[in-house]
Amino acid sequence: MSEEVAILDCGAQYAKVIDRRVRELNIKTTILPVSVSLDKLKEGQYKAIIISGGPESVYNNVIQYDKGIFDLGVPVLGICFGMQMMAFNSGGLVEKKTQREDGQFNIKVDTTALLFAGMTENQEVLLTHGDSVVQVVGLVIVVL
């Protein structure tokens, strides 16, 4: 395992699942708190960063990632709350849902995107959140 990915944990109950799945791809992982310093991330020389989901809302006063991660020149993947933070911080719109979305859902992914290379277009995913990204701008690219 020569490549290493940093997983920034936002309190997700599934951070260990993300960790295990990435390790199953023969990629070393390190779980760090979302508040980890940019210097610590630079020291790790990670090939990519994953910002996990979590129980919070972008509208609460939550601990944030260092926005300098986008200057490290590595891909950053936001999952659930991680994606919501990325969208919100770049000027996108995140709406509070009238009711939570919890359960398994079927989605279609763009298999031409490097992130989903080798996967089938139809994927079953687990959703468990109360906010939803409605509009993205700036740094955020949605590849679903």
From TrEMBL:
GO terms for cellular component: cytosol. Keywords: ATP-binding, GMP biosynthesis, Ligase, Nucleotide-binding, Purine biosynthesis. This is Glutamine amidotransferase domain-containing protein. PROSITE patterns: GATASE_TYPE_1. InterPro entries: Class_I_gatase-like, GATASE. The keyword Ubl conjugation does not apply. Residues 7-135 form the Glutamine amidotransferase domain. It comes from the Eukaryota. One of its GO terms (molecular function) is GMP synthase activity. SUPFAM superfamilies: Class I glutamine amidotransferase-like. The keyword Nucleotide-binding applies.
